[in-house]
From TrEMBL:
Main localization, broad class: membrane
Organism: Sesamum indicum (Oriental sesame)
Top-level taxon of origin: Eukaryota
Gene: LOC105162333
Subcellular localization: Membrane
Protein residues bound to heme: C440
PROSITE patterns attached to this UniProt entry: CYTOCHROME_P450 (PS00086)
UniProtKB keywords: Heme, Iron, Membrane, Metal-binding, Monooxygenase, Oxidoreductase, Signal
Protein's name in the database: Cytochrome P450 CYP736A12-like
Membrane topology category: Single-pass membrane protein
Length: 500
């Protein structure tokens, strides 16, 4: 057995070496974007550390906003400025509208049948249209307004008890639980206990998938090495995919059973099952695998990204007490101190909106978005972009571009006073949700969740850091993943401030 693995490794290494020579030979004939000098076979993998978005930003400062790097056998184009992002996401959007092959997505999203990682084509276009019209429309989002109010009420009551006791609250864990419960009720129609999915717990299992989707995987960079599973990632992905599949099968079967008894909750699972049975999808295949893939998309998209956004906004407000006071003053003027914030109040909170934008600029939750994929050879800004290149949009770098932002490292919400810059993908200086065909379809829902949770927390409570930690001493270290969270949980002590 050991001998066969040795031979497989040797064959894979030889094949990889030959392919590397072929790729290098072909690339010499092209006018590729500039980039750092790479190593044989490895390319530029050795230049990436635990926070690749920061490493790529640093390297781009030397080599330019459109930069070529090779990770193993895979050509990558790193995009680090608003003007460059516009070329790839608008001018040549169609050529780069697909997603690359991806081992994590293969195992964790039913062979890339979801919206996030699905290849561009008839199925993806029709599925996005259905999701936009049926699952993420303003009407559908409004249907869950009562649910959001209920969950926020429970959440605030739990924090009021901590305020009475004068004890620190783990805001990272609390907000993560809140968004998980909101997402479960929206997608599944009810909340599930952690043990219902796996002994590790509901949130942990979803977050593990997000981390596996972002970790550098040799199987993606050296396809011939994928079968060897040198890092043990394939084994973890297969085990996690079984956990997902078993749980989502149970959820679907529960919904089918409720239907048989004449009960329907009209959550997102019900809507998708109705679509599957109605014949609306006869133009393309749509079965339980697709339903499960979209369920995971909706769950992860509405849960982890919203929680991370709230976590970073609260972190910046705690670091900047003057800004916190300005947000509270606006809330007092718009809402008053006799009641909690309602969703109808949110559009009037202009300064809060600036705070959200400024946090998205400095802390985009998906700093490298999801890679785009060149479906054909293309020339962009005079550079040859080879077919099958991965296009990595570094929103972390774009948010710190000194040509686009004055004092880019500082947290200054007031920079948006009188500015038309928005987060919806039309202004390439700020792309928290991406842009173009692959822009996030759940953007509107995400914005409602984030602004509602933040406004409620800041309106209902004053906050201070525990153990005498000063605002400027707050640790802001990041933990990289598909969604970037705080490396250390955010702890703070609440004091209830409303008059009821």
């Amino acid at each position: 057995m050991a001998v066969s693995w040795i031979w497989l490794t040797l064959i894979a290494f030889i094949a990889t070496s030959l392919l590397h020579r072929l790729v290098t030979s072909n690339n010499k004939k092209k006018r590729l974007p500039p980039g750092p000098k790479g190593l044989p076979i490895l390319g530029h993998l050795h230049l990436l550390g635990k926070n690749p978005h920061q490493d790529l930003h640093r390297i781009a400062q030397k080599h330019g906003p459109i930069m070529y790097m090779r990770f193993g056998l895979v050509p990558n184009v790193i995009v680090s400025s608003p003007k460059a992002a516009e070329l790839f996401l608008k001018t040549h959007d169609l050529i780069f509208a697909s997603r690359p092959p991806h081992q994590a997505a293969k195992y964790l999203s039913w062979d890339q049948r979801n919206l996030s990682f699905g290849a561009y084509g008839p199925y993806w276009r029709n599925m996005r249209k259905l999701c936009t019209l049926e699952l993420l429309s303003n009407l559908k989002i409004s249907c869950f307004q009562t649910m959001r109010r209920e969950e926020l009420g429970i959440f605030i009551e739990s924090l009021k008890q901590a305020a009475r006791d004068g004890i620190p609250v783990d805001l990272s864990a609390k907000v993560s639980s809140l968004t998980a419960e909101m997402s479960c009720r929206m997608v599944f129609g009810k909340k599930y206990e952690d043990k219902d999915i796996d002994e590790r717990g509901f949130k942990t299992v979803i977050q593990e998938g997000m981390k596996l989707a972002a970790v550098p995987n040799l199987g993606d960079y050296f396809p011939f090495l994928g079968i060897l599973d040198i890092q043990g990632l394939t084994r973890k992905m297969k085990a996690l995919s079984k956990v997902y599949d078993d749980f989502f099968e149970k959820v679907i079967n529960e919904h089918v059973r409720d239907w048989d008894h004449g009960e329907q909750t009209k959550d997102i699972v019900d809507t998708m099952m109705s679509i599957m049975q109605s014949g609306q999808t006869r133009e393309f295949q749509f079965d339980r695998r697709h339903v499960k893939a979209i369920m995971l998309d909706m769950l992860a998209g509405s849960m982890d990204t919203a929680a991370s956004s709230v976590e970073w906004i609260l972190s910046e407000l705690l670091r900047n007490p003057t800004t916190m006071k300005k947000v509270q003053k606006e809330l007092e003027e718009v809402v008053g101190l006799e009641r909690m914030v309602e969703e109808s109040d949110i559009d009037q909170l202009e300064y809060l909106d600036m705070v959200v934008k400024e946090t998205f600029r400095l802390h985009p939750v998906a700093p490298l978005l999801i890679p785009h994929y060149a479906m054909e050879d293309c020339t962009v800004n005079g550079y040859d972009i080879p077919k099958a290149s991965r296009i990595i949009i570094n929103t972390h770098a774009i948010g710190r571009d000194p040509d686009a932002w004055s004092e880019p490292e500082k947290f200054i919400p007031e920079r948006f006073v009188g500015s038309e810059i928005d987060v919806r993908g039309q202004h390439f200086q700020l792309l928290p949700f991406g842009s173009g065909r692959r822009g996030c379809p759940g953007m509107q829902l995400g914005l409602i969740q984030v602004r509602l949770i933040v406004s409620q927390l800041v309106h209902c409570f004053d906050w201070r850091l525990p153990n005498g930690v000063l605002p400027k001493e707050l640790d802001m270290a990041e933990e990289f993943g598909l969604v970037v969270n705080r490396a250390n949980h955010l702890m703070a002590i609440p004091t209830f401030r409303l008059q009821n």
